[in-house]
Amino acid sequence: MTKRHYNNIVIFLLNFFVLTSSVFAETQKQDVSKFVETLSTQVIQILKDNTGNDAGRRAGFLRIFTESGDVPKIARFVSGSAWKNADQLVRDKYLKVYRQYMAYTYASRITSYNNQKIKIGRIINRGNGYLVNTVLKAPDATQGMKIVWQVSEAKDGGFKVNDLRVENISMSLTQRAEFAAYLAQNNNSLKMLTTMLQNRLDNLK
């Protein structure tokens, strides 16, 4: 094999690798976009089907939060070092209460559907996940609400939501700061945090 032939083969392989990687990356972005679009449609459908039905909205949000959210990862992050200091029984109880608390919180805050539509914009590959830029807008609104979905690949090959940034405010970071303030006054106890969330949950029912 001459040096020229060798160089041509190397160039071909490099171009093939770049092209294949580019096609794969574009396919991944399309899959992420479809995931967010489908999830948004499910949320809208829950609101449309459960107008004035608190129990129905709660059940719907709990299902979506469980299936599409990376609950263990989010729960660990927002609880900070309290998670590391807790035993497994306390962690399990916290995860169960946290999952219900988040579903009920969203169900109580998002109570109606006003024909909003979501438009998916730029998708950024961060290497360890994706940022999906979207705008939620009602037909008669002059401006929409900017929502950035932080999405990562799941072990089963699908995707999970790790965070939402609404108008540049991270929901996870906001909650982590809130929990940190409570934990600082309560011995950094995950058990006490769980009790506090359970009390809030009971008030939402």
What is shown here, in short?
The radius of gyration is 22 Å and the shape is globular. With 205 residues, it is α+β, with helices and mostly antiparallel strands. The protein has helices spanning 3-49, 54-68, 71-79, 81-85, 88-109, 171-184, 190-204, and strands at 117-125, 130-137, 145-153, 159-166, 169-170.
Q: What keywords describe this structure?
A:
7 helices; 62% helix; alpha+beta; single chain; 205 residues; five-stranded antiparallel sheet
Summarize the structure in words.
- There is one protein chain.
- This protein has seven helices and five strands; from the N terminus they run αααααβββββαα.
- With 205 residues, it is an alpha+beta fold.
- The chain has a five-stranded antiparallel β-sheet with strand order 1-2-3-4-5.
- The longest helix has 47 residues, at 3-49.
- The protein is globular, with a radius of gyration of 22 Å.
- The termini are far apart.
Q: What's the average pLDDT?
A: 81
Order of helices and strands: HHHHHEEEEEHH
Tell me the radius of gyration: 22 Å
Helical residues, percent: 55-70%
Largest sheet: 5 strands, antiparallel
State the separation between the terminal residues, measured CA to CA: 76 Å
Write the layout of secondary structure elements.
Blueprint: H1 3-49, H2 54-68, H3 71-79, H4 81-85, H5 88-109, E1 117-125, E2 130-137, E3 145-153, E4 159-166, E5 169-170, H6 171-184, H7 190-204
Antiparallel strand pairs: 1-2, 2-3, 3-4, 4-5
Helix pairs in contact: 1-2, 2-5, 3-6, 5-7
